[in-house]
């Protein structure tokens, strides 16, 4: 796989899966911009690691919920680097609770952070990608968006929404050679999953045919394929990377 000369943006690239995606794209020769919400030092470190690979890196503190900020971030990338070729919408949060106990704020926060953000960045990327006569958008959903999960109705709704949005985006932009696909991870070891208790973790492993949690790199390798020209005839697809969990 070769991503030399491609300019990429990964939202939520300061930690976890987003960081792994950013570094994998950079290793394959891409220039990589990342956004983050709060982790200033972690984001600086990721940019240092990107630049150490001999490509360009830049970070933006940008709340993914803010539409105007998405336009500013993408505008600055295009101004500095000349184009935006790959967008990875990865930023996401959980605020789990049973519906009986879930308050309105937890619903709104998860839907806006996980789903509205995808609209914000995809819309802002559309014009530069049309000008460049092509592009690849990769949206990070979850197996929970396919199968649902007790205690995660807000998260499941946001992640299912991503699939519907991506397919619509893919249909609207296909004639412009802009592809859009979804990667739906299963249980991956990051800070997001770090506070699950032993009992829950064991249950997740039992439900996973491959019998283990995934590593962030197992997600980023698939994202890199979708970002590359090797996947040039794939659009509107949902690829589960879940050890068989939602099979
Ligand atoms: P982490 O909690 O480890 O990292 C989340 C990242 O998103 C951080 O970079 C964080 O920035 C950023 N972020 C959070 N909120 C915002 C916001 N409002 N604006 C901008 N950036 C924000 O999560 P993971 O790496 O585990 O998850 C990444 C994606 O993968 C998410 O969409 C998640 O739903 C999805 N996923 C994860 C799974 C897993 O098992 N881990 C399974 C299925 C899907 P900061 O550091 O500044 O807080």
CATH architecture: 3-Layer(aba) Sandwich
CATH topology: Rossmann fold
Unreliable stretches covering 5 or more consecutive residues = none
Count of alpha/pi helices:
9
How large, in whole angstroms, is the Cα Rg? 17 Å
How much strand content do the residues show? Answer: 5-15%
CATH class: Alpha Beta
Shape: globular
Extended strand count: 7
Please state how the strands of the largest beta sheet are arranged side by side: 3-2-1-4-5-6-7
In the CATH hierarchy, what is the superfamily? NAD(P)-binding Rossmann-like Domain
What does this structure look like?
The chain has 247 residues and is of the alpha/beta class. The chain has a single domain (7-240), classed as Rossmann fold (3-Layer(aba) Sandwich). The chain has helices spanning 16-27, 40-52, 67-81, 104-131, 144-147, 153-173, 191-194, 198-207, 216-227; strands spanning 7-10, 31-36, 57-61, 86-89, 135-140, 178-185, 238-241. It has a 7-stranded parallel beta sheet with strand order 3-2-1-4-5-6-7, with helices on both faces. Helix 3 (67-81) packs parallel to helix 4 and helix 4 runs parallel beside helix 6. Residues 11-18, 35-39, 42, 63-65, 90-93, 113, 140, 142, 185, 187-188, 190-193 line the site of NADPH dihydro-nicotinamide-adenine-dinucleotide phosphate.
Defining traits:
single chain, 247 residues, alpha/beta, Rossmann fold, 7-stranded parallel β-sheet, 9 helices, binds NADPH dihydro-nicotinamide-adenine-dinucleotide phosphate
């Amino acid at each position: 796989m070769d991503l030399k000369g491609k300019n990429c943006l990964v939202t939520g690239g300061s930690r976890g899966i987003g960081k792994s995606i950013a570094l994998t794209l950079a290793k394959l020769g891409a220039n990589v911009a990342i956004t983050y919400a709060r982790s200033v030092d972690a984001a600086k470190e990721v940019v240092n690691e990107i630049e150490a690979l001999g490509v360009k890196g830049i970070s933006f503190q940008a709340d993914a919920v803010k539409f105007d900020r998405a336009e500013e971030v993408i505008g600055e990338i295009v101004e500095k680097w000349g184009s935006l070729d790959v967008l990875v919408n990865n930023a996401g949060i959980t605020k789990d609770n049973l519906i009986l106990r879930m308050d309105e704020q937890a619903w709104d926060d998860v839907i806006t952070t996980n789903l509205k953000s995808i609209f914000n960045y995809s819309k802002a990327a559309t014009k530069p990608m049309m000008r460049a006569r092509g592009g690849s958008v990769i949206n990070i959903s979850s197996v929970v968006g396919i199968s649902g999960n007790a205690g995660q109705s807000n998260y499941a709704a946001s992640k299912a929404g991503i699939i519907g949005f991506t397919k619509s985006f893919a249909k609207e932009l296909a004639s412009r050679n802009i592809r859009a696909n979804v990667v739906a991870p299963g249980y991956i070891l990051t800070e997001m999953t770090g506070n699950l208790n032993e009992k829950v973790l064991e249950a997740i492993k039992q439900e996973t045919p491959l019998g283990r949690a995934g590593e962030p790199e197992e997600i980023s390798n698939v994202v890199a394929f979708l970002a590359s020209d090797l996947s040039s005839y794939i659009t509107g697809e949902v690829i589960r990377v879940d050890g068989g969990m939602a099979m």
